[in-house]
């Protein structure tokens, strides 16, 4: 009977070792699957990022011409207006200086209107 119990215990110990091996393999399998999933997710994220960058560059390139032509148009308008202002300045500066000097130099002395009323 002792031999039979010893054999039963031995069988149980072997079964326990086998179960431990199976559990260890399952853990390793799970860890490997997680690593594979992370790697795959990283690849997908990188592909998506590259696709979006390419899409943005294409969008930017297609609209760069519009921005450039608009900037040229604005610059041209600014030059035209600046030339008009410069021309007006050059045409009228002598008149403005003369008017200012006339107002400062040619003073007509008069009594203040309130003073005239009191003196009358």
UniProtKB/TrEMBL annotation:
Family: Belongs to the V-ATPase G subunit family.
Keywords of the record: Coiled coil, Hydrogen ion transport, Ion transport, Transport
Lineage of producing organism: Eukaryota, Fungi, Dikarya, Basidiomycota, Agaricomycotina
Coiled-coil portions: 12-58
Subunit structure: V-ATPase is a heteromultimeric enzyme made up of two complexes: the ATP-hydrolytic V1 complex and the proton translocation V0 complex.
Species of the source: Gloeophyllum trabeum (strain ATCC 11539 / FP-39264 / Madison 617)
TM ranges: none
GO cellular component, one term: vacuolar proton-transporting V-type ATPase, V1 domain
Protein name as it appears in the record: V-type proton ATPase subunit G
């Amino acid at each position: 009977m002792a031999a039979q119990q010893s054999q039963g215990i031995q069988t149980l110990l072997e079964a326990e070792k086998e179960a431990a091996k199976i559990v260890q393999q399952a853990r390793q399998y799970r860890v490997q699957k997680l690593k594979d999933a992370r790697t795959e997710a990283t690849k997908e994220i990188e592909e998506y990022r590259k696709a979006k960058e390419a899409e943005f560059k294409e969008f930017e390139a297609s609209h760069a011409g519009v921005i450039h032509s608009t900037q040229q148009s604005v610059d041209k308008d600014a030059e035209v207006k600046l030339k008009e202002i410069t021309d007006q300045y050059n045409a009228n500066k002598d008149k403005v200086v003369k008017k200012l000097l006339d107002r400062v130099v040619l003073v007509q002395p008069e009594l203040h209107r309130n003073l005239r009323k009191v003196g009358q």
